[in-house]
Amino acid sequence: MAETKIRLSKSSKQKILIAVIVLLIIGFVVGECVSVLSVSIETQTAMTTTVYDTIETRAVVIRDEKAVEVLSGITIPAVADGEKVNAGGEIAMSFSSAESAEQYSNFRALEEKHKYYTDLGSTSVGNVTDIELLERNILSDVNSYIRSAGRKDISAAEDFALEVNDDLTRRAILVGETVDFSQVISDTESKISQIDVSSCKPTGYVTADKAGFYSKYTDGCENMIDYSKVKDMSIEDFNECLTNAVSAKGSAANGGKVINSFIWYFACVVSAEDVAGLRNGYNTQVVVKSTDKELKCTVVRGADAALSADQTLLILSCNEMDKSISSMRLEDIEIRVKSYTGIKVNSSAVHDRDGEKGVYALVSNIAKWRRADILYTGDGYVILSYDDPDIKNGIKLYDKIIIRGRDVYDGRVFA
Predict the structure, then answer these.
(1) Can you give the pLDDT at residue 126?
(2) pTM score of the predicted model
(3) In angstroms, what is the C-alpha Rg of the chain?
(4) What is the rounded end-to-end Cα distance, in angstroms, of the chain?
(5) Confidence band for 128, pLDDT divided at 50, 70 and 90
């Protein structure tokens, strides 16, 4: 059967085209109406955030430290890394051979292990505060382990892993769990009895001239500048220290060092403009980038830069000390000059209403105006004041701030 073809006239085609256009226009208008009547909004809970004006620079660490004298033969530490030492106390031992040094070191390690598990086994049940402290320590050590592993510091990662294990064991004992150490104590005693201590005793000792803090790491920069003259050093002196620190290589292969003063310094050259918010004698917070460690420091000098100066030598003192600090030499640091605490929101959430800055908060599905001062402007965000008694209708903590929405105004009801 022959196929019949239907042909439309030109006028029919025009009518169909007009009908399609009219339908599209009607669909668009309906969509706009629906959009206006049911506005989609997004809110953010008002929580406090602190941001900082910072100076980022590279600093050299200067301490009152002295490398341990290396005796003839094989010299090894007599105290643990990070341990305090007394004046006249033994800090290093000398042996006639590497074999004797290794055997004696194993003997000392086994004795420490035996004492550790004996003491741990006698730990009594503690109170809730002890458990909470241990849990905080566990969390801190886990975070430190992750950071150490991330920067491939295997030695530090191993230390933190052991500390986590120790704290978990202590926690188990404190909550009443039975942990049996008898087997490990028995095995340790057996290994100790097999060592002939008389054949591997040290042939000599090095003692500390002054009390201090022992570190097994040295880098050859222990005497790069007179510690007593740190506050008088020049930019040229700093540049020389910086050159030495860049080429320094840390090592734990010798007798280590003793840090005689717990007060030490960061020295760095920064722009004179950057120190405008600092004052000599003021405290400031310093973050060490490699470890995320936050240190409380004091500005010793450099904040009073001359008006004509482009740069200034900034000296910061600190009295905190631990194993990681004792091995620092050249560090990228962040100096926190000024802090701003407030509500952090996207810049687009801030509106201008009758010459006032502020945001809209959603209260029982009604948009309410919240006036606020801009404390800090960042990249795409601002920090706003909150709960200020001098600001009428200011932002309050836990307000639901509208950060996205169309045609928002004070008093508008949202379904």
Answers:
(1) 43
(2) 0.72
(3) 34
(4) 62
(5) very low
- Separation of CA 170 from chain center: 26
What is d(CA 149, CA 151) in angstroms, rounded to the nearest whole number? 5
Q: Are 290 and 150 within 8 A, CB to CB? A: no
DSSP state, residue 360: E
Burial class (CB in 10 A: 0-12, 13-18, 19+), 247: exposed
Q: What digits encode the pLDDT tens for the residues 360-372?
A: 999 998 999 999 9
The β-bridge relationship of strands 90-95 and 356-363 is unpaired
CA distance 14 to 169: 85
Residue found by looking up tokens 């903590």 in the block? 397
Rounded CA-CA distance 10/130 in Å is 91
Query: Which carries the bigger pLDDT value, residue 179 or residue 10?
Result: 179
Closest CA to 315 of 414, 234, 219: 234
CA max distance for the chain: 119
User: If DSSP codes are grouped into helix, strand and coil, which group holds residue 107?
Assistant: helix
User: CA dihedral in degrees (37, 42, 46, 52; nearest 10)?
Assistant: -130
Residue 125's pLDDT band, with cuts at 50, 70 and 90, is very low
Tell which residue, 142, 138, 137, has the closest CA to residue 150.
142
Residues 201, 193: Cα–Cα separation, whole Å? 15
Tell me the pairing of strands 90-95 and 74-77: antiparallel
